[in-house]
Amino acid sequence: MADLTVKRIEMIPVEVPLREIPARNMVREIPHWTLFEIWKVTLACGIVGVGETMRYYTWGVSGQEDADRLMERNAAEMMWDDSLGAGLQMALFDAVARANDVPVHRLLGHKVRDRAFVSWWDIDMPVEDWIAECRDAMSAGYTDFKTKARPWFCVRRQVAELCATLPGHFQLDMDFNGMLIDVGHATRLLVELERHANVAMFETPMPQHDVAGNKHIRRATRVPIAHHFGNPPIMTALQEDVCDGFVVSGGVGRVHQSGIIAATANKPFFLQIVGTGLAAAMSMHHAAVLSHARWPAVSCNTLYKHELIAEPFVVENGTVAIPEAPGLIDVDWDAIERHRLDKTPDKPYPHPGLLLAIRFPTGTTVYYAHCQQYWDDFENGRLPSFAPGVHLEHVPDDGSKEWSELQERARQGGVHVGGSAI
User: Fold this and answer.
1) What is the three-class DSSP state of 384?
2) Domain ranges within the chain, ordered by starting residue
3) For 21-33, b where at least 16 C-beta lie within 10 A, e where not — what string?
4) In Å, how far are 14, 156, 362, 364, 421 from 418, measured between CA atoms?
5) Does the global pTM surpass 0.90?
6) What are the distances in angstroms from CA 20 to CA 132, 168, 208, 399, 411?
7) What is residue 181's predicted lDDT score, i.e. its pLDDT?
C-alpha cells in the first residue's frame, strides 16, 4: 500500500499573462488576476500532487502555515480540510488520486456525467470587445458567455448590439453583483433585457440579503436568477424561494456539501472555481459527481494566454470531457517555468497611471483613477444608476500637464466636470 505521508511541499509563484482583450479591460479592476502560486506536494511513496492558488482572490489562499501543518501528515486524512486553501487542497487530492491510480472525481463520489457544462467569462467592457470575445468563444466550441452588467456602461444598448450578432443557441449570462440596488431599478431593467432571447440568466441582480426584493424581481422576470449559495442562509433562501438556482464555490468540502443540498432541493447551480486550467479541471471533477451542476461552470481559464496544462481542453457543444487519467490533470511544467517569478509580488492594485472617464448623456463626465472609487459611488447612490447612454473610457496619458493634474485629482476621488476636461 502506498505511503501517503506528506514529505515535501514547494510553492512556485508565477505570473500568467492575460489575452489582449481581457488585459486591457481588467487593468482597471483586477490586474492582480495574473498572479498564481503553484503548490507541489510530494508523498513518501514518491507521488507528486499539484494545485494552484490565485494569490489575491477573495478566498482559498494557501500559505506557509498551512503547508507547515501538513508535513508528516497523511494526505488522505487532510485533503478534505478546506482551511488549507485551494492550492494545497487541490494538490492533496491530485496526489492521493495518483497514488490510487484513479481520477480525482473517483475520490469525490459517484459519477453522474461524462461531460461538464462550461462558460466563457469576461469582465464588463465596451460592446466591441464583448462581440469579439463571443466570436472567439463560439469558435472554441462554447455556447455560453458570462459577463458583468455594470452601471458605468449602457447595458441596454450593449446587450442589444451584442445579441444582434449572436445565433439563437448562444446564451448570455449577466452578473450584476447586486448593483441594481433597489426593486424599482431592478425590475425595470431586467424586464427590458429579457426581451433579448439570448439572455439566459441574471446573477445577483440586487443585494441577496434583500429577501422581499429578490422575491419580487423573480416573479417579474422569466429569466432564471442565480444567487451565491449561503446568502441569505440556505434555509431562508429555500423557504422563501428567492432564486432559481445557485452559484457554488469554495473548498472541496463546501462545494460538495452545497451541491448535495442544492440537489435535495432540486435547484440547479453552476460551479465557480476560478483560475487557470488546474482550477478548471477541479471544477470538472466536481461536475462529474454533482447531479445538479447543470448550469455552465465559470472557471475563467479562457482569460489566459496559457492555461498551464499539458493538453488544452476541447470544448464541443458547450461541454468538455471530464478528465479520466489518474489525478487532477497533467500540467505543463515548461509553461510554469517560463512564467515563474522569484517571489510573489505585492498586490498591483490600483494600477498606476490610469485615468478613467465615465461620461453621462447629460454632458457630465466624472474622472477616476481606479474601479473601487466609482464602484463605491454607484453602490452608495451618488451617481445615476444604469443611465441610458452612459459609457466608460480609458483616457490615455498624452504627456500633458493637464492629464497629470487631472489624474492626481482623480486619485483622491471622483472629479465631476460639466463636460469633458480631456
Assistant:
1) coil
2) 356-417
3) bbbebbbbbbbbb
4) 44, 24, 9, 5, 8
5) yes
6) 11, 27, 33, 24, 26
7) 86
